[in-house]
Amino acid sequence: MFIRVKTSKNSPKQSVQIVESYRNEKNQPRQRIVRHLGTAFTEEELKRLKDFAEFEKAKLEAEKTPALFKPEHLAEAAIDARKNIDDKPLRVNLKNLREQARITTGIHEVFGSIYNELGFNNLFDRRKESAGKNLRHITMARLANPVSKRSSVQDLSKDFGINLSLDSVYRMMDNITDDIISKAQNCAHSAAKGLLGEEISLLFYDCTTLYFESFTEDELKKNGYSKDMKFNQPQVVLGLLSTSEGLPVGYEVFPGNQYEGHTLHTVIPKIKEKYNLKRVIFTADSAMLSKANLDYLEKQGVEYIVAARLKSLTDKWKAKVTESNAPLRSFDYGKDTRLIVTYSDKLAKKNKHDRDEAIRKLQEKLEKSSNPKSLISNYGYKKFMRVTGDIDCRIDEEKYAQAANFDGLHGVITNVKDMDDSAVVDHYRQLWLIEECFRISKHDLKIRPIYHWTPKRIKAHILICFIALTCARNLAYRVRLRFEPMSVARIVNALNHVQLSILWDKKTECRYVLPSKINEDARKLYKTVNLSTNTTPYKM
Predict the structure, then answer these.
(1) Contact 529/483 with Cβ under 8 angstroms?
(2) What is the DSSP letter of 333?
(3) 53-69 per-position pLDDT tens digit
(4) pLDDT for 117-158, tens place per residue?
(5) Which GO terms describe its molecular function (predicted)?
(6) Has residue 400 got a pLDDT over 90?
């Protein structure tokens, strides 16, 4: 097998195919397309498609076709029977048919294929095979409809033909050890390397907080600064690592009162030791920016691209960065360090609009308050307001003008030497991909609030969400390469509509399977993981 790039004569597009050589009946050499991977319009797209083609070719050559995930009971029998479909007509009396079950199969077939391929089905050893199956089931349930474990068990029975007991799910969670968590992160890292076709050198890191429906603290659940504004509820801090393509590679869980800037002392040694990376360009937002952190990164020999807090610079530096609205400027900022400042009209308009809108809403709130002074602080947009007398609310023009000087400006600090200013900025701007991972985790997978109390089950819950996130991002990356970008919500919606109806003939007592119509999104997703979409009715 080999990879072929087919160039169009009158178009910039280039098609990437996996081709196999063979000989026909007359022993003449021939070639056939084994798999069409997609079409590229730029050199970057072509590079990614060729990496993906190498990944797919290696699987084909090793004859490692992902096993189809088989739900239990009726669903398992229905999917097994599909393997033996023939062209013989089915002779049935429709009046005798009754629907016995309607089972959603898209999630289990497509995401189940990804799950197995990434190696998550091998996290538990053979002695705990049932725990491994339960982990896979509950991960699929979280992808399909992220609810509590009790509701997931009910959904699996009602929608997927899978019967689990809630106790067996909790036992599985209690059997998740630090070694299993480490193995899962190794699977995610290996998958990212395989898809990208190269050693990972650029890593993005960010933290978020996950709160609990509880008000009781322990050694892991602690009150702290909450990004969800749940300051009176205990939380944990989650630090996530991803590639520049948004593929998760690892995470760490910290006590809720941990300052996220201090998490670097745990994460950096892990990056260097566990992932055995030759080079790391560490990228993070301004929460990681402190002299102590930058000194630590320098001491560890780690290159970094970190957002700068321009408004917190010294007066001398503030004057430098605000003296011009040039699109890109670079300054020497200490030994082997650059401060790169960019300006955007679009960002400037947004900054002004956000500030004015926040002040307008605050003024309305102040004018309605019987004690407006109690609402004024030096926090956020409130610092722009002055209250004189009882209810005379005015904008502090001096502070407002000082803030307006920074409209449209953004800065990053880096010690990377072999990358020009524009490339550094471009790399930093990809940080939104890890923020998207958090958005998917919080909204699509509903990682919080957390309803578990013990540290072991909290860590198990986070692992389940991490595995689900890894499967979702992995599939989204592949379908984007082969067809078009799809959000996780769109992917899940398409797969939730792929179903099987199991029909029972009350006279002959035979069962028949009627697959649902496959929508176009689902068809692309099935093709992405190389599964067929046969919708022919068949007999069980």
Answers:
(1) no
(2) -
(3) 888 887 777 654 333 33
(4) 999 999 999 889 999 999 999 999 999 998 889 999 999 988
(5) DNA binding; transposase activity
(6) no
CA 408 to chain centroid: 29
All structural domains of the chain, each given as residue ranges with its CATH number in brackets, are 2-64 (no CATH), 73-175+456-539 (no CATH), 178-344+408-451 (3.90.350.10), 347-405 (no CATH)
Burial of 508 (0-12, 13-18, 19+ CB in 10 A): exposed
For 304, the 3-state DSSP assignment is strand
Give whole-number Cα distances, 67 to 117, 119, 530, in Å. Answer: 8, 11, 11
Task: Give the closest residue to 280 by CA, choosing from 201, 337, 190.
Answer: 201
pLDDT digits (tens, 9 = 90+) for 483-510: 999 999 999 999 999 988 888 888 888 8
The strand pairing partners of 39, in sequence order, are 15
Return d(Cα 215, Cα 327) in angstroms, integer: 48
Q: What's phi and psi for 230, nearest 5 deg? A: -110, 60
Q: Can you tell me the distance from the alpha carbon of 46 to that of 427, in angstroms, rounded to the nearest whole number?
A: 19
Token pair in block for residue 277: 């990376």
- For the four alpha carbons of 45, 47, 52 and 57, in that order, the dihedral sign comes to positive
Tokens of 406: 């920074």
